[in-house]
Amino acid sequence: MPSCLNLPLFLSHSQMEQRLLSITILLGVLYFCHAQQEGSDCIKANAQSCGECIQVAEKCGWCTDPNFLKQGDSKSARCDELEALIKKGCSKTMIENPRGSTKVLQDKPVTNRKKDPAGQPITDRKNDTVIIQIQPQKLELNLRSGEPQTFKLKFKRAEDYPIDLYYLMDLSFSMKDDLENVKNLGTALMHEMQGITSDFRIGFGSTTPARLINPCTSNENCTSPFSYKNVLKLTDDGSKFNSLVSQQQISGNLDSPEGGFDAIMQVAVCGKDIGWRNVTRLLVFSTDAGFHFAGDGKLGGIVLPNDGKCHLENNMYTMSHYYDYPSIAHLVQKLSDNNIQTIFAVTQEFQPVYQELKNLIPKSAVGTLSSNSSNVIKLIIDSYNSLSSEVILENTKLPEGVSISYKANCKNGVVGTGENDRKCFNISIGDEVSFDIAIESKKCPSDRKSQTIKIKPLGFAEEVEITLNFICECECSLTGEPVSKECHNGNGTFECGACRCNEGRIGRKCECSTDEVRTDDLDANCRKDNGTDICSNYGDCVCGTCECKKKDNPEERYSGKFCECDNFNCDRSNNKLCGGHGRCECRVCICDPLYTGSACDCSLDNSTCMAANQQICNGRGTCECGVCKCTNPKFQGSTCEICPTCPGVCPEHKDCVQCRAFQTGEKKDSCEAECGYLHVITVPERENLPQPGGQTYSFTHCKERDANDCWFYYTYGVRNDSQKEVYVVKKLVPSRPGHHPHRGWRGGRHRADRPGPAAHLEAAHDHPRPQGVCQV
């Protein structure tokens, strides 16, 4: 890189043309040096190829002009902000600056699904694909590092949406009464659900601990216990539900808590056996006990973790003796993956336990188990309405370096941000909400391959499929010339105007071997002076040029010709770099406007020093870093407004007002010399004195007594920060014993400044003097 010091500059003083030419050259050199010293993030990244450059930041571009670099420039100088590249002579048409994009591949409108007067849906109820609640359905995003791609996702809750409900019941002995109530649930629930959907199916399963053959006493008709049994696949025949459930018998309580997690897992993952459709899926789990979870199986010698797969044979779970119970996290994952919303119908005793479980399972509800079948139906319908009124978006695992953000646009103009950025509540049938979604890549994945993610509302079957393509290389790299003569005997590929060196070769033209980078001759060019480390110990000397080390934090960088600079070792204030009011460049804070100081912690804004009278520090101090420094030690306070030892404004100017207005008082003989600073204006009555709100400056009302025991009234104020102005009432008022005309009018300030002592006024009223003669 050319040195910015000791530049020969030959100025001719004989001809104006040569002088102007010299000035032009000087300004160009100064700009070039400044640009090298300051540098943007793009330059500091030391990018060696176009692909590396465009991954630094979305503002970085790469100049492909082969003749762009000047003598001594490093290859990384091609990477800079677009405006800087143009100013340095790169044509806009030769700047590689690919942009990201968003392309909608499938955008079917949301469905307005309604019933006809006969109660049947207008759309074909057998063709579920016609029901669309989320839009768009498929997108393709081309992501460039640091440049987010945004799109809007719309959700509309459809009317008459199909529902599958699976009733899973604990058939332990203590649930005997509840089983009797469920036996007629099928037809009754079918009837009630007609008000919500015309396409409703119901199924039934049961669970008990599977340990004994004959768990009940001889007086009870019990079945052998089992872990889980799929009694009835989902059906739209309510009478069939009643018939099969009526044939079920209770088993015995072998232990408490029960093994419901095994059954819930099988219901979630055995979609074909249960008969789940791609519609709203509800699972009602009815029990009067707690639950086992992962680890409890070890008590029975079972150590293999649950594999989360379907193990039904003849509709019976066959692996309860082989696999441990599922963990809560595993169960949550499978319920979410299969879009199942869970309703826990439990006894009052176990309400707290299942409420805690509900907090861990999104889109779940808890209700009280009742012996009355109508209450059970009400619980199911209320829970369904509550769950369906929530729209909560979730996404699958994101690729490395990719982030996603949401903003919810809910009903009645409510905007969800922070914890509620992906949630909308109280959504009724027919309501439409939307979400603003932004996806950003911070870096290219290691394999640089396209990735697919999905976004879906929890508990709903529909989803948005998003293909992510990563812009990791520039288009100009596709036309690169391998083994190019431009790259020192073919030691690299000439692409995008520069050499991309083969393995083992480095340098601007791939002219150096990695075996040569530590030779003494080359190292000498990387020392700031004879007594310093190579590249300030923060970089490597490559072909006689320092290439600065990169820190783990991409926001922190070493820079400079000898890597002597960085952007993170500046002074701090309030534990913030440069006080949060500047940027760190070469270990020196460059402060934002209105801030100064080594840590940019000194504000130049005087508003915090402005007193109520619109004077800086009340004219009694200076504003330093936004804080008043009082020049008179008698004053203190945030605007030098407090003087504990000072008399009030009224007593302070009393003698001068008296001599200027009435030619009396202690200073009447020296009035001109001592009191000429006052501008006195007389008024006939007290009503003519300035009143609050009528002046553009602050003032004080005063009332003082003269030697003849007479009152005189005046106001004192400072106009335009300098002119001391006094309005005086011409008429003196005699003091009369027992009468206090000043009460309710006592000299009070009409500004924020604290008044000085005025106790002598009160004393005068409490002890009136004999009445004197009051005249002017």
Automatic annotation (TrEMBL):
What is this protein's name?
Integrin beta
Which intervals of the chain are annotated as region Disordered? 101-124, 735-776
Q: Residue spans with biased composition (Basic and acidic residues)? A: 113-124
Q: Which GO biological-process labels does this protein carry? A: cell adhesion mediated by integrin; cell migration; cell-cell adhesion; integrin-mediated signaling pathway
Subcellular location(s): the record lists: Cell membrane
Organism field: Esox lucius
List, for all copies, the residue spans of the domain called PSI.
41-91
- Tell me the protein family, please: Belongs to the integrin beta chain family.
Entry-linked InterPro entries? EGF_extracell, EGF_integrin_1, EGF_integrin_2, Integrin_beta_N, Integrin_bsu, Integrin_bsu_tail, Integrin_bsu_tail_dom_sf, Integrin_bsu_VWA
One GO cellular component assignment for this chain's record is: synapse
